[in-house]
Amino acid sequence: MVLFGIFALGCTVVFMVGGVFLLWASTLTLPTIDIIEAQRAAQSTKIYDRTGEVLLYDMHQDIRRTVVELGEMSDSVKHATIAIEDDGFYDHYGIEPFAIVRAIVRNLQDGDLFGGQGGSTLTQQVVKNLLLVSDKKISRKLKEWVLALKLERVLTKDEILALYLNEAPYGGTKYGVEEASQGFFGKSAKDLTVAESAYLAALPQAPTYYSPYGSNRDALEARKNTVLAKMHEQGYLGDEELDAARNEEVTFRPFTSATIKAPHFVFYVLDQLQEMYKDIDIAQANLRVTTTLDWELQKEAEAIVYEKAMENAEKFDATNASLMAIDTTTGGILVMVGSRDYFDEEIDGNFNIGLALRQPGSSFKPFAYAAALEKGYTTETMVYDVRTQFSTGCDKTEMSSDENCYAPVNYDNEFRGPMTFRNALAQSVNVPAVKAMYLAGMKETYTLAQRMGISTLDDYQRYGLTLVLGGGEVSLLEMTEAYATFANDGYRIPHTSILEIRGGDGKTQYTYEEEGEEVLEVEIARSITNILADNNARTPAFGSNSYLHFPERDVAAKTGTTNDYRDAWIIGYTPELAVGAWAGNNDNSEMDKKVAGFIIAPMWHAFLEKYFELYPESGTFEDPEPLDTTLHPMLRGVAPSVIDPGFASSTPEIGDSLVLAPHSLLHYINKDDPRGPAPQNPSLDAQYPYWEYGVLLWRMSQGTLTIDDILNPEEVDEESTVRVRITEPDENEKYDLDEVVETRVRTSVDDEDATIERVLYYMDGVLTATYTDPDRRYEFMPGELALEPGEHSLTVVAHSTDGARGGATVDFIVRD
Question: 359-474+628-703, which class in CATH?
Fold first, then answer.
C-alpha cells in the first residue's frame, strides 16, 4: 500500500506539472511584425564615447529590411543556409530532441548549461529572432520549443524558411537575405552565386564576429568554406561546383553609414561585445556601451591621418596609414584610426590595418635592449658597429646574408666603430642591436616582448637574430600598448576599449577594472625611456630638430622601417599617452625608399602637437639611477683602445708597453654574467671569432694598420741595421685553440748609438700588439684572436730609434 501511495502521488505531481505546463504553453502566441519592429528599435544597442554623451553608433538607426518571396531567392542561398544551420530541416517537427539532449550534455561537460551548443533548428531560430529575448533562462528555451512546435503547425516548411531568410541578422543594420545581398554584393538575392550564398549563410551564427567589415576576415573565409563543404556532403554541390565555388573571387561592397562615428573603433568594440555576449545578437541586446574613445582626439586624428596619408601617396607611394593612441595610466584606447578613410574602397579602407600583422622594423629594438639591461648590461655598454657575420654556419669572412648567412647592414650602409647602447638605439643602428639581442638572449627578448603585450610572435627560434630588426609580425595596437608599458615605468595595463555596459533596465552589467602587473623593473623601463627621449643621442642620425623632438615636452620615440620599405613605423609616448603610427600599402607593395622619419613621423608629430593643444598639462619622465662607476670600462662606455687598467688582467703597465689591439666586448665580458669575472676562454663563445674578425676589419678600414708595417722575411732589407729572430714558437709548431702561445724574440741594432724603441706583432698580417720593451714576451691564445684551425703566420717587426726596421716571420698550426 505504501508503494502504491507513493506511485499515485508521483503520478499526481506529474499530471499537475504537465497540466500547468500545457496551460502555460497554450497562452504563448507569436508577436506581430509591428510589435517586433517596435521592440527592435527599443532594444537597439548604442555605443558612446568615454564621456557617455557622444553617440558613436546606434545599431538600429540604419536598419533596413526588404522582404521577398522564397521564389525570389536563389536556390544556392536556401541550400547553403539549410546545410550549415539545419540539415534535417524538412524532416523534423520544429525541434530535434536528440540534438537538444546532445547539446545539453556537451554544455554541461563545458560547465555551462547555456554554452555554445544550442541544438537549435531553423524553426527555433525563427522563434528566437521573433521573440527577441536574449537572456539565458530555462523559461526562454521552453518558450522557444513550444512556439517552434506551434509554428510548424501553422506554417509550411517553405514559409518558415522564407521567414528565417527575411528575418535573419546578417550583421549591423542588415536583416534579411535580400538586404544583405544588396548591401554586400549590390545584387538581388535571386542572383546570388554559390560562393556569395555561402558567405551569407556563414554570417547569422555570429554576424558581428564574421562581419566582412571587421578584423576577422580569415575566420569568415574559413566558415564560408565550411558551408561549401556541408553543401557538398549533403548533395547540393558536385565536385566541380565545389571547386569552382571555393576559387570564386567575391568582392564585398564598401560599408556605408550616415550616422557612424569612428567606424574602425566601433567595429573593434562590437568584436569585444561579441566575445562577451557570445551567441546573442548584439544589435538587439539593448545595451548602452560607454567606451574609452576620446572623440575630440579621434576627430583630430582622422583629419591628420587623411591629410598626411594623401601627401604620402604622392611623395612616397604610401597610400594608407593608421594611428593608435592609448592612455598609459589606464590602458584605455583613446584613438583608433584604422586607415586614411574607412569608406575609401580604393584602398580597402574598411580593413583596420592597425590590427593587422606587419613587420615592425627597428621599432622592435627597445625590447632587445631592455632584455639586455635585465641581464646586467647598461645603457652605456660599448659594442662595435662593424661589419659582422653572425651566422656560425658561415665563414666569418663571408660578409653577406645569402642562404644561411646573416651579415646585416645599417640603414646608411656606414659602420661607426665603437658605440654605446644609448647611441646605437637612439640612432637606430642595426649591427649593435643584433649584438644586444645576442647578449640578452633571443628567448629572453622574445619572452619580454610577450610580457609587455606582444602576443602574435611564434617560437623565437623561427626568427633567430632577425627578430630584433623586425623579423616577426606584430600589430600597431599591441606595439603601442607595449611602449605604454615603458612610459608606465614597466607596469603593463592591457589595452581596453569598454568602460561600462548597462542593460535596458539601467543596471550595470560590466564595469572596467584595471588589472595590471609589473613586467619590467622600474629602473630598466626608465633607462629605455631615457634613451628614446635623448635628443642629443639621436641627433647624428635625425638632426637636432627632427619630428621626434618637442623642445618643451618630455617625449620618447622610436621609428622603424622594414628592409624592403613595405612598412614605416613610429611609436612614442609622453608620461600620459602612447601613440603609434604606421604608413604603407595594404597590398604590401613597396613604398619609395625613405626611412620612417620622412614618411610617418610628420603625421605622428602633427597628432601630438594637437594633443598638447587639447591637453596642455603634461608630466615629465623620471631619470634612472646614475651608472655604477666601478663597472668594467666597456659597461661604462669606454672603448678598449683607451688605456684603462680595468680592461683585462693581461693589459701591460703604462710606460712598460702599450697594447694597441682592441677586442670585442666578448673578449672582456662573460655574456651571461656581464658584471661577473672576465671569461677564462672567450673563444668558447661561438660568436667570439666572428665579432673579433669584424673589429679587426674595422681597424684596417680606419687606417690604423698600413701594409708598410707588415714585413715578410723576403721583404726585409738584408742591409738593415735591425735584426729580428723568432726563437719561439718553432716553425709549424701545433697549438690548441685554448692553449697559451709564448713568443720569444731576439732583437739587435748594428748602430751603437741606436736602440729598439718598439716591437710590433702581426697575426696573419693584422697588428695585434705593440711593446715598447723589446724584452717583453707576447702571449696569446689562438681562440682569443679568433684564429680558425689551420696554418697561421706570426710576424714580428722591430723599429729602432734611428728609423731603421727589421722583421721575421714564423708559421704555426692551430689544431682542430
Answer: alpha beta
